[in-house]
Amino acid sequence: MNRYRTIFISDVHLGTPGCQANYLLDFLRYNDAETIYLIGDIIDGWRLKKSWFWPQEHNDVLQKLLKKARKGCRVIYVPGNHDEAGRQFAGMSFGRIRIRHEDIHVLADGRRLWVTHGDLFDGVMQYARWLAYLGDWLYSVILVANRWFNRLRTRFGYPYWSLSQYLKHSVKNAVSFISSFETMMAHETRRRGCDGVVCGHIHKAEIKMIDGVLYCNDGDWVESLTAMVEHFDGSLEIVHWNEIKSSAAVPERQLRITKVSVNVEHVMESTE
């Protein structure tokens, strides 16, 4: 069991076929923390309104989080755009999971991080919501293709590969949108007087400095299968949980953790 000071998770999208719930369950079994942040789009209300999809493993993820909260883990849920209905319950608790519009997390080294999903600072979400719904539909189509493609890759012994991530990082407009989003989040973080921000929304895990502000995105559990963790010294790391699991051939005890560490010296820079 790996233990951290804090774990940040977002964009799980429970309730959709694209959700990689089994991978997240594995992650939660082998990783624990004093505090777990659920930073939006944990449950995909958009998709569930159109058609009900809720297999047992999606319920198991919620039960696992509730169990961790009962055992003393501080679990904080910050709703996003796909689970925006949860925002009306901000300030309340559900099964010891605290619901908040946003939060301020203080790292072990004293830096203050603003925690928010990020959709409220996405121009498409705010001013062209119809386009966001269209993009969500196209994204779902790509995920279906991605799922079948990876089944073939697994059969031939190849590791998981995300078609949607490849397209997102290759198309010029998508790259420009991501860059603009990151810059806007850094600007708003500075305006709020915080040292950094932790968000989700765009499904692109990242830890980097933007104009003296620490920008952190914990990724997602649909494409990149990532979380961000804080170690007990205040350093941050993106954890990639992308080992392909064959339920028939690979016992759980043989699963391995794949971590991609960021430049710790770079991340430990202070803006003070």
What does this structure look like?
The chain is globular and about 50 Å long. Helix 1 runs parallel beside helix 3 (56-70). The model is unreliable at 123-134, 171-175 and 244-272 (pLDDT under 50). Strand 6 and strand 7 (112-115) form a beta hairpin. With 272 residues, it is of the alpha/beta class. 35% of the residues lie in helices and 22% in strands. It contains eight helices and 13 strands. It has helices spanning 21-30, 45-50, 56-70, 123-127, 129-155, 163-170, 172-191, 264-267, and strands spanning 2-9, 31-38, 74-77, 93-94, 97-99, 103-106, 112-115, 196-199, 206-210, 213-217, 226-230, 236-240, 258-260. The longest helix has 27 residues, at 129-155. The strands form two sheets. Strands 4-5-3-2-1-11-12-13 form an eight-stranded mixed β-sheet. Strands 6-7-8-10-9 form a five-stranded mixed β-sheet, with helices on one face.
What does this entry show, briefly?
By secondary structure, this protein is α/β, with parallel strands linked by helices.
End-to-end gap = 34 Å
Beta strands, count: 13
Number of helices: 8
Largest sheet: 8 strands, mixed
Percent range for helical residues? 25-40%
The main sheet orders its strands as: 4-5-3-2-1-11-12-13
Layout: helices, strands, pairs:
Layout: E1 2-9, H1 21-30, E2 31-38, H2 45-50, H3 56-70, E3 74-77, E4 93-94, E5 97-99, E6 103-106, E7 112-115, H4 123-127, H5 129-155, H6 163-170, H7 172-191, E8 196-199, E9 206-210, E10 213-217, E11 226-230, E12 236-240, E13 258-260, H8 264-267
Parallel strand pairs: 1-2, 2-3, 3-5, 7-8, 8-10
Antiparallel strand pairs: 1-11, 4-5, 6-7, 9-10, 11-12, 12-13
Helix pairs in contact: 1-3
